[in-house]
Amino acid sequence: MSEETIEDTVPSDDVVPHRSSDEVERALEATLFASEEPMSVDALAAHLGGLENGAVRDGLKALVVHYEKRGVNLVERGRRWHFETAPDLAHLLRREREQVRRLSRAATEVLAIIAYHEPVSRAEIESIRGVQTAKGTLDVLLEAGWIKLAGRREVPGRPVIYATTPEFLDHFGLASRRDLPGMDELRAAGLLDPVDDALEEAMDAAGTPDPEDCESAGEDGEE
Hints:
Layout: H1 3-9, H2 21-34, E1 39-40, H3 41-47, H4 53-67, E2 72-77, E3 80-85, H5 105-117, E4 120-121, H6 122-129, H7 135-144, E5 147-152, E6 160-164, H8 166-171, H9 183-188, H10 197-206, H11 211-221
Antiparallel strand pairs: 1-3, 2-3, 4-6, 5-6
Helix pairs in contact: 2-4, 5-7, 5-10
């Protein structure tokens, strides 16, 4: 056999071995179970040896169905996947009463404005609220992990712009910003203090846009 023929029969290192759907699901299950942090589709595909993203998504969908009635569920938060305790069983894992985090009126307004209008600068937040925003208010939200610095606006002065984080989505049980509820839904769910009526006024004055449009704008504006 010629040298050229021999080389042609040796498998290339770039070839991804074929995996059945069951093998993909088991590999994803093991990877997510062992991972300390939620993982994106891209990260999972790379971890599994360059598996196609489509195969990863199909495997994740199958696992979601498999675990939907189990003690843990596979969920997507901010385009990252992880296992979490089924909501109806969460009380079994609580040894102490959770301290509900109550934001100040100002912090609640700022968080809502960022969530529905991101990415936004401090000046834009103040324009919507109609009052100055203390740096401490933004610091509280940064420390909570619900907002992040998302780059700088390409205008004179290049002000810092803010956006929400995957932790924000996880805390409020949202898969993406497209799932942001309206004010009535938030209040009915007990996620807002009834005294925060000014928040609704601020959102109405700003003209709350469609969440899907906000997400598209947020992705274009982030650096």
